Amino acid sequence: MAFPLFRNFHVALQCRYSTSNIARRAIHTFREVRPLRTFRKELQGSQRTVGFVPTMGALHEGHLSLMRQAAAENTDVFVSIYVNPTQFGVNEDLDSYPKTWNEDVEKLQALDKELATRTGSGRITAIFAPTTKVIYPTLPPSSEITGPGSFVTITPLGSLLEGASRPVFFRGVATVCMKLFNIVMPERVYFGQKDVQQTVVIRRMVKDFHLDTEVKIGHTEREADGLALSSRNVYLGARRREVGVVLSRALKAAEKKYLQGKRTRADILWPANEVSTSKMMEQDDLPPSKRARVEVDYISLADPDTMEEIKVVDAAKGAILSGAIKMLPLEEPQEGEDCGLGGGVVPVRLIDNIILQPIN
Ligand code: AMP
């Protein structure tokens, strides 16, 4: 009788031992929900915390900086790589969205090695890379606003700004994040300020649905000239890349006015509009072989909690300055020109923002 008991105890010890050690040796990749849940439950019993970074892959320094933050605050970092179809409208760039699985895994392994050298740092423990059938088990996902399916909607927040230009976007984001949070059950979730409206939507969802996780926001990683890093930047090519920096310059010009003490919408936004309009005019005047035409979708000055447009900034509360531009397809590409992935035919939408911090 004593032997089986002893054996069970031994097996239990082995399980515990193997979970912590396997997790430290290799990054686990999960494609299904059940094995991930089993693994996650084993971590739960041993005082380990999970910081979760949802991504659509095509990883860059912006993603990696969120993972570093997650590793500094948790023992285990889980990363999801999933291009979520329901956040793309019917005519958007779902099919052409960059997919770089091998490079992504290499970047995660390199980051994990780097984290291993830091005392007390968490590690990249798991990648969740599900198929669409796993994430949407009942119905094929719909990108129609009236389409069937189980969705999370956050209104009116999800219909403003980015949501006005992309009506299904935040429904798709909130829905997939709800699913991912339910699967991973992270102590903390990490989002980039680069997508500021997304951070407001996720915070609201976590609050309103009483989700048991803490939302953490990481700063925007930028190129040296100010262009915010984005997976879509690979489509720009040199000519459009140079002009694309106009958005961050326009927002900076507006921020400067706020820091100089201006508080009205007109006083803060006029320099941003001037910077973008003069760039548009400059490009329109160039010959098609030299120019990169750009359209402004919006430049916004909004309340930090509701994202509603405001006329005056309450300095005690601050505000969100944000904008979106569209880099139009390249005209008359030249022999040997760097036109970016896709040869310059894909229009590229760029977004950016600056938080106007409260001033007491
Ligand atoms: P995505 O793969 O584009 O869905 O982005 C995954 C996460 O990375 C989101 O939380 C983004 O806000 C964040 N992210 C994207 N670009 C940047 C950036 N330049 N700096 C910091 N975080 C970013």
Order of helices and strands: HEHEHEHEHHHEHEHHHEEE
**Which range does the strand content fall in?**
15-25%
Arrangement of strands in the largest sheet: 1-4-3-2-5-6
Rg calc: 23 Å
Describe the protein's architecture and organization.
It is built from eleven helices and nine strands. With about 350 residues, it is an alpha/beta fold. It has two domains: about 190 residues, 3-Layer(aba) Sandwich (Rossmann fold); about 120 residues, 2-Layer Sandwich (Pantoate--beta-alanine Ligase, Chain: A,domain 2). The strands form two sheets. A six-stranded parallel β-sheet has the order 1-4-3-2-5-6, with helices on both faces. A three-stranded antiparallel β-sheet has the order 7-8-9, with helices on one face. Helix 3 links the parallel strand 2 and strand 3. Helix 7 packs across helix 8. Bound molecules: adenosine monophosphate (AMP). Adenosine monophosphate binds next to helix 3 and strand 5. Adenosine monophosphate (AMP) binds next to helix 3 and strand 5.
